[in-house]
Amino acid sequence: MDADPSTSIRIAVLIDCDNVSSKHATAVLEELAKYGTPTVKRAYGDWTTTQLGGWKAELQRNAIQPVQQFAYTVGKNSTDSALIIDAMDLLWQDNVEAFALISSDSDFTRLATRLRESGKRVYGLGMRKTPESLRRAVDQFIYLELLQEQARDRDEEPDPETDEQEPQPGINLESALTKAINATSGDDGWSTLGTVGQHLSRAHADFDPRTFGHQKLSTLVEEQPYLETRSEGSSRQVRLRTRKRAPARSATTRKAAGTTARKSSSGTAKKTTGTKGASRASG
Q1: Which contiguous run of DSSP H or E holds residue 103?
Q2: CA distance 136 to 245
Q3: 13/98 Cα distance (integer angstroms)
Q4: What's the confidence (pLDDT) of residue 210?
Q5: Which of the listed CATH numbers 3.40.640.10, 3.40.50.1010, 3.40.50.2000, 3.30.450.20 matches domain 1-166?
Q6: Residue 167 — pLDDT band, cuts 50, 70, 90?
Q7: Partners of 142 in the beta sheet?
Q8: Are the beta carbons of 114 and 27 closer than 8 angstroms?
Q9: Are 22 and 55 within 8 A, CB to CB?
Q10: What pLDDT shows up at residue 163?
Q11: How far apart are CA 211 and CA 156, in angstroms?
C-alpha cells in the first residue's frame, strides 16, 4: 500500500498558551494529524505563574516542549515575540513544510503572511472571537469550538463553555457554493467536488463543513436543494440545479393558436356589426 502523501508533510505546532485553554491540546494535535506530522511542538508562556497550571499535564501527555518566557512588564504579554522569533528561526532552518499557529491573537497576522510568502503552508487554530485579519492571513483556519464539539459528541460529555457559545457561521453558504461552482465548472455546468473544495478553501480560509453540521463537503453539498450531484468514474461532481422551463410551443401549435385568435377576432367583429345594424333598424 502506498503511503499517504500528507504524512510526509512536517508541521511546526506553535501554541500561545496565554491565549488558548489547555483543554484544546489533544484535539488540536489530532486535527493536525490529518494534514501532516507535527514534528515540532512548542508551547509558549510564563510557566512560573499559576495561570498555566492546566497546561503542565497536557505538555507531558502530548510531548509538547514548554518554552519559558517571562513577563518583563506587568500586564504585558511577552509570549508573542518569543513565538515569532522561534517561527522565523524554523523558517530559515527549513526543516518543516507547514506551520500551525494556535492562537486567537491578531498580533500573529503578519507572521502568518510572512511564512506564506516564503512558500510555507500555514494553519490557524483559534476561537470564534479571532479577528478576521488573522483568519484571512492563513491558508486554513479551524475553530477550536468545532474541535471541542466533536470531542464532546464522541465522549458524550457536556462542555459548559461550548454550550454557552453556539457556533454562528460567518459564511453565506449558498453564495459561497454558487460562486465556487461557477468558478470551477466546465461548459456543461458540472464541477468536481475536489476543485470546489479547493476554491472554497482559497476564498474562505475558515470554511469548514463541520460549521454546518457535516463531517465532509460531499454530504453538505448533497443536502443543498439548489445543487445536484453525480458520480463520474471515481470522482464526485456537482452543479447548480437547473430550473425547469415551460416546453416551447411547436410551429403547428403556434399556427393553430394564431388561426383560433383570428377566428375569434372575426366573430367578435361580425357580432359588433350585427349589433350596430339592429340598433339603426330600431331607430
Answers
A1: none
A2: 41
A3: 9
A4: 84
A5: 3.40.50.1010
A6: very low
A7: 125
A8: no
A9: yes
A10: 45
A11: 19
Strand partners, 126: 143
- pTM assigned to the model: 0.64
Tally of CB atoms within 10 A around 244: 6
Output the pLDDT for position 107.
Answer: 92
Cβ atoms 210, 150 nearer than 8 A:
yes
Burial class (CB in 10 A: 0-12, 13-18, 19+), 57: exposed
The residue type found at 6 is S
Q: Cell 493536525 appears where?
A: 32
What is the identity of the amino acid at 148?
A: Q
Q: How confident is the model at residue 164 (pLDDT cuts 50, 70, 90)?
A: very low
Residue 214 CB: number of other CB atoms within 10 A? 15
- The pLDDT tens digits of the residues spanning 62-86 come to 899 999 887 655 545 668 889 999 9
Parse the chain into domains and list their residue ranges.
1-166, 169-243
Closest C-alpha to 86, from 44, 33, 55:
44
Instruction: Kindly report the CATH number that applies to the domain delimited by 169-243.
Output: 3.30.420.610
Alpha helices in 156-250 (DSSP H): 160-164, 173-184, 193-203, 217-223
Strands of 87-132 (E only): list them: 98-102, 121-126
Extract the C-alpha cell encoding 111.
Answer: 507572521
Each residue of 112-138: pLDDT tens digit?
999 999 999 999 999 999 999 999 999
pLDDT confidence bin for 91, thresholds 50/70/90: very high
